[in-house]
Amino acid sequence: MSTLPPCPACHSEFTYEDGANLVCPECAHEWSAADASAEKTEEDAVIKDANGTPLTDGDSVTVIKDLKVKGSSLVVKVGTKVKNIRLVGGDHDIDCRIDGIGAMKLKSEFVRKA
User: Fold this and answer.
1) Which CATH superfamily is domain 60-113 in?
2) Beta bridge partners of residue 106, listed in sequence order
3) The pTM is what?
4) Which keywords, in A-to-Z order, does the entry hold (predicted)?
5) What does the alpha-carbon distance between residue 33 and residue 22 come to, in Å, rounded to a whole number?
């Protein structure tokens, strides 16, 4: 079962598809399904830190939790500052290089903007 977005006019959850459009049965508002998916991808494209601050390429972040490195006995400690991050899509949002450990992929939920 696919989930359709709520109506942008009245926020009703009972929307349905009618050809290429989405329709709200409560307020009769019609909008394009392509517009709804474009809005959703724009919202998903913004990567935010643990505090909700948007991150950009080249930012510096601080680790807020001890992170075990998979396949190694190394640990990235709380308070480790990571400079010049690069944002990527996927499960791990941040590519970076940590001094003493090397190249890493981090999740944005475990960092805050420095």
Assistant:
1) SH3 Domains (2.30.30.40)
2) 94
3) 0.61
4) Hydrolase
5) 6
